[in-house]
Amino acid sequence: MISVQTLDEFIIRRQTDFPYATGELSRLLRNIALASKIVNREVNKAGLVDVLGITGYTNVQGEEVKKLDLLANKTFIASLELGGQCCGVASEENEEFVAFEAESSKQGKYIVAIDPLDGSSNIDVNVSVGTIFSIYRRVSPLGETCTSEDFLQKGIEQAGAGYVIYGSSTMLVYTTGHGVNGFTLDPSIGEFCLSHPDMTTPKDGKTYSVNTGNFYNFPKGVKDYISYCKELGKGSDSPYSARYIGSMVADIHRNLLTGGIYIYPSLDGYPDGKLRLVYECNPMAFIIEQAGGTATDGFRRILDIAPQELHQRTPIFIGSSEMVLKAQELLDKNK
Ligand code: AHG
Ligand code: MN
Ligand code: MN
């Protein structure tokens, strides 16, 4: 028999490394993994059953809500509520955070912020999508209803973060602040199996990921950085490559493995860019930092930003440290 380590086994082993761990965070992670398997099943069926397309609603950010956005949202929230370790969830798809009112849930130590389906505009065209999650210890008193303060903590306070990529294979990658580990779903046994232990990202890379369709709305520093990447390729047999899937999870996952930078900057008229701090940028920043990379808004570390509201946006420069620092240098020059 080939020896595999399942995610559940890995989580249990890790927990025993921490003598005072109660197992609640472990159970929470396992609930998230279970929900992601259900979402994976639905994503895989997309095209065969009636889950493609839009619901006809728009969310709080004015974006079209896809059927799979709603399905993923419901699945993760239901799984977290059933689990009992979590007292509330904030989601891209809900204007306000959802507070779990059952007495058992109010005893939950954790809150979760989630982007249930990232890159959902890609779903109808069979391109990779993802899920992003962020876990915090609550700051409100145990036994009471959770409060907005629980959700507006700085990224450095995260107890855990992760993403699931529904790609050519399905992977779950997570950190609890002790490195990053990746698990690939083996559909034949329905288990996430450790495939990428102790993931680290190269200090430098040659891939830049940015929607250059917005080029003329970018700040001068970002335009300069893109020109810098292109110019390095002149006459080189190993130039920089532009790669942009349009699913943050998939773009950052590729860059994590191979080295690269992902940029969603401010745009003319949109000084905070597009991506959301609490459930997109903070969790991805935690993972990338744990893998040895860097994440900033061009000037400040993402994890140090104090959120003022749940759906707050921020520009982001994330990936291989050398590349992020170079971009930052050019932004600084054009301040
Ligand atoms: P979501 O589907 O959760 O709203 O996120 C979409 C995000 C992100 O995944 C992606 O990188 C970015 O939007 C793409 O935006 P552009 O189409 O503006 O490039
Ligand atoms: Mn998203
Ligand atoms: Mn989403």
Structure description:
- With 335 residues, this protein is α+β, with helices and mostly antiparallel strands.
- The chain has two domains: 190 residues, Fructose-1,6-Bisphosphatase, Chain A, domain 1, CATH 3.30.540; 127 residues, D-Maltodextrin-Binding Protein, domain 2 (3-Layer(aba) Sandwich), CATH 3.40.190.80.
- Helix content is 32%, strand content 23%.
- The strands form three sheets. It has an eight-stranded mixed β-sheet with strand order 4-3-5-6-7-8-9-10, with helices on both faces. Strands 12-11-13-15-14 form a five-stranded mixed β-sheet, sandwiched between helices.
- Strand 8 and strand 9 form a beta hairpin.
- Helix 1 packs antiparallel against helix 2, helix 2 packs antiparallel against helix 3 and helix 6 packs across helix 9.
- One manganese (II) ion (MN) binds next to strand 5.
